[in-house]
């Protein structure tokens, strides 16, 4: 019998025993990991060695707003994340399907006093103590 395993998905029990990225949201103010019926996270290892670590989070991020020209102003509110302790030599974050296809906004999204005119996705690598850090 010739059996081919393309992906191996590991459960939460294994996650605590192996290394996974120490992702931090730099401008995060409050966050929580979803765990309604079970912890919403998993690790998948592909046959080519690619590792996918995924978890469902809700993040409340801070955003400095400049309201000098309100209501005719334009605000930019980034969600900046990267590794807490590792440099780009150790950890690289990539959008799984490319930036444009990886973020999806709810079609019924409403902001009572604002119009969302876009959500550009960028990759930035900066220098912090200890080495280069990648930001999204």
UniProtKB/TrEMBL annotation:
Major place of residence: membrane
Location in the cell: Membrane
Pfam families per record: Neur_chan_LBD
Membrane topology designation: Multi-pass membrane protein
GO molecular function, one term: transmembrane signaling receptor activity
Domain of life, source organism: Eukaryota
Residue ranges constituting the Neurotransmitter-gated ion-channel ligand-binding domain according to the UniProt record: 7-118
GO cellular component: membrane
InterPro entries (alphabetical): Neur_chan_lig-bd, Neur_chan_lig-bd_sf, Neur_channel, Neurotransmitter_ion_chnl_CS
Keywords: Membrane, Receptor
Stated name of the protein: Gamma-aminobutyric acid receptor alpha-like
Native organism: Elysia marginata
Top-level taxonomy: Eukaryota, Metazoa, Spiralia, Lophotrochozoa, Mollusca
């Amino acid at each position: 019998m010739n059996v081919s395993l393309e992906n191996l998905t590991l459960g939460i029990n294994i996650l605590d025993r192996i290394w996974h990225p120490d992702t931090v949201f730099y401008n995060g103010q409050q966050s929580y990991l979803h765990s309604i019926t079970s912890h919403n996270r998993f690790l998948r290892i592909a046959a080519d060695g690619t590792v996918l670590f995924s978890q469902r989070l809700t993040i409340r991020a801070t955003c400095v707003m400049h309201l000098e020209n309100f209501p005719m102003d334009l605000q930019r509110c980034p969600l900046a994340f990267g590794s807490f302790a590792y440099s780009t030599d150790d950890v690289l974050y990539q959008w799984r399907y490319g930036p444009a296809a990886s973020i999806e906004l709810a079609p019924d999204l409403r902001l009572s006093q604002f119009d969302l005119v876009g959500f550009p996705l960028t990759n930035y690598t900066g220098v912090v103590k200890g080495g280069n850090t990648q930001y999204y």
